[in-house]
């Protein structure tokens, strides 16, 4: 019998492998579109430093490739300007005792050429457009989603290498680690989900084939930076970006979690967006993932302090991510602990450039 009691309080320190976290509260990755020119800037340094009391910050989705910068003003992590900008972010967060992972998000088909540099391509598993109403561009306003180019095997190999190179660049810029965005309908989930993957080669069809690209990316990043520094975000039952639940989804995510576990990843970050209108992820699916993935599991979606503590106490996960509450409450950790009322955020400024609705939320 173990004599070491584990403190599962939301406010207790937690060791994410070799990385000590001050508490079990994670700031969820949130795209905020302030990176004009796709380069992290002073405003972003201030924003992340303001939120450094989270046990772990996961940055906004950040592209490992010029082909993955499909939204307006999202940051990249593939050249020296990006690295220099991010280095200032990581230094500012570390100076305040925080820890920070970068989320690598290749936007895949959720992209528009008007947001992207000349010579880039909108890529996906198959030439199937996002069925959503459209995508915002700074240059041309709202536009229909383009038909993406189905990736060749060479394109896939290039993308795998881009993820690995980007992860290395990010760790060299001071990040404590990297989260692969395998959720919410972007490139990695476009391979996992048959709603977007209609391939007939080794990357489409069977469960094993649809998992292949994600597992190749994960293996390449493990080789580049080590499994202790890598997590992944998955959204079974997510419907964002034209995704849809599919036959056999429970077994699919159970086996995927097991294979990611075997690759040695540090954490698996589960998304349940039922608080945002998606179908709830059945508890059996969450339990299957929890059973297959032996290391840290992060829970996310619609949490408040009471439900977060209840789920930690019940052993459903090890860390809990909060998204929207962190936008309008930079001092969220203090407020969750004291029970103080949370400040409401303004959705109109979630994605707009500049400091309004970004760095101007006060500490109460
Ligand atoms: C403004 C905004 C931007 C988001 N951007 C991302 C993103 O870049 N990557 C990601 O994985 N999830 C993203 N999400 C989803 C959040 O990480 C989180 O899962 C969601 O907000 C539900 O958690 P909450 O109820 O605590 O807000 C975003 C959510 C919001 C509100």
Q: Overview of this structure, please?
A:
Helix content is 32%, strand content 15%. It is of the alpha/beta class and 364 residues long. The protein has one domain: TIM Barrel (Alpha-Beta Barrel), CATH 3.20.20. The chain has an eight-stranded parallel β-barrel with strand order 3-4-5-10-11-12-13-14, surrounded by four helices. A two-stranded antiparallel sheet has the order 1-2. Strand 13, helix 8 (305-313) and strand 14 form a beta-alpha-beta unit. Helix 6 (249-263) runs parallel beside helix 7. The chain is globular. The mean pLDDT is 97. Flavin mononucleotide binds at residues 28-31, 60-61, 103, 105, 181, 183-184, 233, 271, 275-276, 300-303, 322-324, 350.
In short:
With 364 residues, the chain is an alpha/beta fold. It has helices spanning 42-50, 80-95, 153-172, 187-192, 207-225, 249-263, 283-292, 305-313, 324-328, 332-338; strands at residues 14-16, 19-21, 25-27, 56-62, 100-104, 123-124, 135-137, 141-143, 149-150, 177-182, 230-234, 267-271, 296-300, 319-322.
The Rg value, from CA coordinates, equals 19 Å
DSSP strand count: 14
Largest sheet properties = 8 strands, parallel, barrel
**CATH superfamily caption:** Aldolase class I
CATH topology: TIM Barrel
Question: Which CATH top level class fits?
Answer: Alpha Beta
- Percent of residues in beta strands: 15-25%
């Amino acid at each position: 019998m173990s004599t070491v009691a584990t403190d599962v309080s939301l406010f207790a320190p937690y060791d994410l492998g070799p990385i000590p976290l001050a508490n079990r509260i994670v700031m969820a990755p949130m795209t905020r579109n302030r990176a004009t020119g796709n380069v992290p800037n002073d405003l972003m340094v201030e924003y992340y430093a303001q939120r450094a009391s989270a046990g772990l910050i996961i940055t906004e989705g950040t592209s490992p490739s010029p082909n993955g910068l499909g939204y307006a003003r999202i940051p990249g992590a593939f050249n020296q300007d990006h690295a220099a900008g991010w280095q200032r972010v990581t230094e500012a967060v570390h100076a305040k005792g925080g820890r920070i992972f970068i989320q690598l998000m290749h936007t895949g088909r959720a992209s528009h050429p008007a947001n992207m540099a000349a010579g880039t391509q909108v890529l996906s598993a198959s030439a199937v457009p996002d069925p959503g109403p459209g995508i915002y561009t700074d240059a041309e306003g709202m536009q229909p989603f383009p038909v993406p180019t189905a990736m060749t095997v060479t394109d896939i190999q290039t993308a795998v290498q881009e993820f690995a190179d980007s992860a290395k660049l990010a760790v060299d810029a001071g990040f404590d680690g990297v989260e692969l965005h395998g959720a919410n309908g972007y490139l990695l989930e476009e391979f996992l989900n048959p709603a977007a993957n209609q391939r007939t080669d080794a990357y489409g069809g069977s469960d094993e084939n649809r998992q292949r690209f994600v597992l190749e990316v994960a293996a390449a990043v493990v080789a580049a930076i080590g499994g202790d520094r890598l997590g992944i975000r998955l959204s079974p039952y997510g419907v964002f970006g034209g995704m849809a639940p599919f036959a056999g989804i429970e077994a699919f995510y159970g086996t995927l979690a097991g294979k990611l576990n075997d690759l040695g990843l540090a954490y698996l970050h589960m998304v349940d967006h039922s608080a945002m209108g998606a179908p709830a992820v059945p508890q059996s699916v969450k339990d299957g993932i929890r059973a297959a993935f032996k290391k840290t599991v992060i829970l996310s979606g619609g949490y408040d302090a009471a439900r977060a503590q209840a789920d930690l106490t019940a052993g459903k996960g090890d860390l809990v991510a909060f998204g929207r509450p962190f936008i309008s409450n930079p001092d969220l950790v203090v407020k969750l602990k004291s029970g103080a009322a949370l400040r409401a955020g303004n959705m109109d400024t979630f994605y707009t450039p500049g400091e309004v609705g970004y760095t101007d939320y006060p500490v109460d």
